[in-house]
Amino acid sequence: MKVVHYFVTSLTTVLLVSAAHVMAAVNEGGQFSDQEMSVAKFWQGMGPALRDQGMEAYAKRYHPDFRHWDITGSGRVSDHAGAVAAWSRFDEAGHVITCTHVIPVTIDIVGDLAYARLVYEQANRMADGAMTYGAWRMFDVFKRHKDSWQVLESNMVQIEPEQEEGAQFQCLPGD
Hints:
Blueprint (H helix, E strand, L loop, with lengths): L33 H11 L1 H14 L2 E8 L7 E3 H13 L3 E15 L2 E13 L5 E15 L2 E12 L16
Parallel strand pairs: 1-6
Antiparallel strand pairs: 1-2, 3-4, 4-5, 5-6
């Protein structure tokens, strides 16, 4: 089956996930502390926040100074308002992310900042019923706010799954 790549927008730092298909962030071998895994789990929970709590609660998961740099695409830098607008359009169009999976590569916490390198994949059911799939290497910065995290900075490059030797992908079509 040919894998269809779909880049929702250059703002794929968030998820709209069907609860039945949410995959837990992987911590094989226990190499990450509970605090480090809280960052990966926060990322994993972005989609359910949009679906279950609505756009207002979802938007609060982004730091007010949020920036996203589209490294390999337009080169454009988007902000908080742009991210919220893009995901509002995705949601209002009737598209649904049906599967997400986060594979932490490194997570470093320094004070109230977390620096995370992640491999992220998602599958989508578009409003017309078509299924799409994408995978990304990501470097994100999170800022602690009260007892949780907010996404402060996001940078990503789309990849082919076979580029990640040994990674256990969960959302590939036909799996």
